[in-house]
Amino acid sequence: MERKEYTYTEKKDTRSGFGEGLYEIGGKNKNVVALCADLTGSLKMNQFKNDFPERFFQVGIAEANMMGIAAGMTIGGKIPFTGTFANFSTGRVYDQIRQSIAYSGKNVKICASHAGITLGEDGATHQILEDIGMMKMLPDMTVINPCDYNQTKLATIAIADHIGPVYLRFGRPKWPIFTKENENFIIGKAIKFIEGRDVSIFATGHMLWQALEAEKLLYKMGISSEVINIHTIKPLDKDAILKSAKKTGHVVSCEEHNVIGGLGESISRLLSENNPCPMKIIGVNDTFGESGKPLDLLEKYKLDPNTIKKAVTDLINSK
Amino acid sequence: MNNSIKIEELKNISSQVRRDIVRMVHKVQSGHPGGSLGCADFFVSLFFHVMKKNSSFKMDGINEDIFFLSNGHISPVFYSVLARSGYFDIKELDSFRKLNSRLQGHPATHEKLPGIRIASGSLGQGLSVAIGSAITKKLNNDKNIVYVLLGDGELQEGQVWEALMFAAHNKVDNIIATIDYNGQQIDGQVDEVNSLLNLKDKLESFGWIVIESDGNDFNSILNVMNEAKKNLNTGYPVINIMKTIMGKGVNFMENSHKWHGIPPNDEQLSEALSQLEETLGDY
Question: Using one digit for the tens of pLDDT, what is the confidence trace for A120-171?
Fold first, then answer.
């Protein structure tokens, strides 16, 4: 595999990828229904709402009720996609998801926008950094955090065919599009973006782009990084992670989430049980966020390419 | 069918269901007899007369009426009635709350017990689920009815009022909700803990057709269910405020919140069973 430098010509928000994917699958599968809690525009669900009004349900500002209704709608064969911000998709309704959806084994797709710190100016009340943790702790829940517009669209389409509850996490800001429209997206299957030999960088969501940018900096220093996209945090692609970690012997994980409870923690558990090796977890360090521009926040909260670069060089030099 | 003969038959089943309830909670020394006994006549009416049911259980519930229990702690009455109406062998009632059982403390789909379509126990969620199921029936052009039972104390959960608002606004008119209005909750009387004040007014102001019944009188239950059915498909959801006596059928348990979640001891079990005729054979 040749080293490839990833570039982009266009930026688009991942939530628009969700809206496109929902619209496309809605046209193909008449069992797909969509529910929204007063955020139709923010979730980019307008196209679905306009073209399939009989399958779109405005629930109002009542997320707990939305989760219960979605659970009930599966009885009789519907495939409900709920749409609201990640904060209101998880923390606000944890018990409803736990009892009526996860424990009850209901085929609900919980679609969550504005996840993480890049939500920006609205501040910490809305910037949830604990959602991956809450969702991955639920037995039988699938947790997916796609990296760009194209991947979010593909993931949205893929989860409609997956039987069982899914948490799909995406974001608000315009973000580089660097994956292909027709990429093969398989739930639970990691994607290797760059082959390398000195360090394995596992990244999810927006942080994959940051990892690819860090790889460029490291390459100039003569460090060969393997960059792997873990879009599905649960179930984790254990084989891909262990194979790469065994090869490079150094691991860095990157996520727009608290370092407690996220992707890094899942990888570290996998490694400590199977292949202990030095590791750094890049994430928000157990703190709340604040108002600001997405890129400024990423820098302040140490989610930028330079921080990833430093984590890698520290790891390699410590050996 | 002659109504008085039907009611005699339902009474006989109820007596046996009440025996099942007290025996189940006595055996494992845990569970919730009070609300279960109070709702026995309602469950028996629904499952042996009111609801249209397919012969075998399928989760999707297509082309049949569907029932949801929101106040899941009264699982003993639910399990007894499911078994007695043929969803599973009555012998399985003996496994209630034991290790490796399908009869979990609170109803669950996880162990695939026939008759259960949603887990409940954490209160306030069942009405939302029932509304979702009713919408799917409409989308599927399935003319059957969705029934749901809630506790009265459960109405203190905010989600219930979210669901009440939604159903009226969206004209979910293929649902019949019932509130077990026994006036008791764990810590005492509902009126003392957090009063519902004028419940009928509240529900009417939320846009529901409200009917009232006596949940320990078969004539009242059957009449009110007929009335409820007449009000379906009129653009309004229907809710039945059903007065019951917590602990009904066992004199020392009646009307006391103390029997919400406490099992009888050996002596109390004998006393309770002496008041409840064994009509269909104990499990």
Answer: 999 999 999 999 999 999 999 999 999 999 999 999 999 999 999 999 999 9
Q: How many domains does chain B have?
A: 1
Domain end: A132, A147, A176, which one? A176
ipTM of the complex: 0.97
Question: B165 and A60 in contact by Cβ < 8 A?
Answer: yes
Instruction: Point out the domain boundary residue: A150, A176, A202.
Output: A176
| Domain containing residue A245 | 191-317
Instruction: Give the other-Cβ count within 10 Å of A10's Cβ.
Output: 10
Q: Is residue A1 part of a domain?
A: no
CB-CB neighbours of B173 under 10 Å: 19
Residue A1 pLDDT exceeds 80: no
Examine residue A273 and state whether it is found in any structural domain, yes or no. yes
Interchain proximity B128–A57, CB inside 8 Å: no
- Per residue in A288-312, pLDDT (tens digit) is 999 999 999 999 999 999 999 999 9
pLDDT at B4: 83
Answer yes or no: do B60 and A54 touch at CB < 8 A. no
Contact A172, A15 (CB under 8 A): yes
Task: Say which of B110, B122, B129 has its CB closest to residue A71.
Answer: B129
Find chain A residues with C-beta within 8 A of B129's C-beta.
68-69, 71-72, 100
Q: How far apart are CA B17 and CA B90, in angstroms?
A: 11
Phi, psi of A265 (to 5 degrees): -65, -40
- Interface size A-B, in CB pairs within 8 Å, comes to 119
| Span A60-80, pLDDT tens digits | 999 999 999 999 999 999 999
Helices (H), B170-265: 190-194, 199-205, 218-230
- Per-residue pLDDT for B188 more than 80? yes
Please name the residues in contact with B270: beta carbons below 8 A apart, sequence gap of 6 or more.
none
Distance CA A240, CA A312 (A): 19
CATH number at residue B172: 3.40.50.970
Render pLDDT for A219-272 as a digit per residue (tens, 0 to 9). Answer: 999 999 999 999 999 999 999 999 999 999 999 999 999 999 999 999 999 999
B60, B63, B104, B125: best mutation site toward chain A, by most A Cβ within 10 Å? B125
Question: What pLDDT does residue A318 have?
Answer: 87
Residue B228 near residue B177 (C-beta atoms within 8 A): no
Closest C-alpha among A104, A65, A135, A138 to residue B125: A65
Please report the pLDDT score of residue A3 as a whole number.
Answer: 87
B64, part of any domain:
yes
First to last CA, chain A: 27
Backbone φ and ψ for B194, nearest 5 degrees, come out as -170, 95
Q: Is A57 on the interface with B (CB under 8 A)?
A: yes
Residue in B61, B109, B128 nearest the CB of A69? B128
Instruction: Check pLDDT > 90 for residue B2.
Output: no
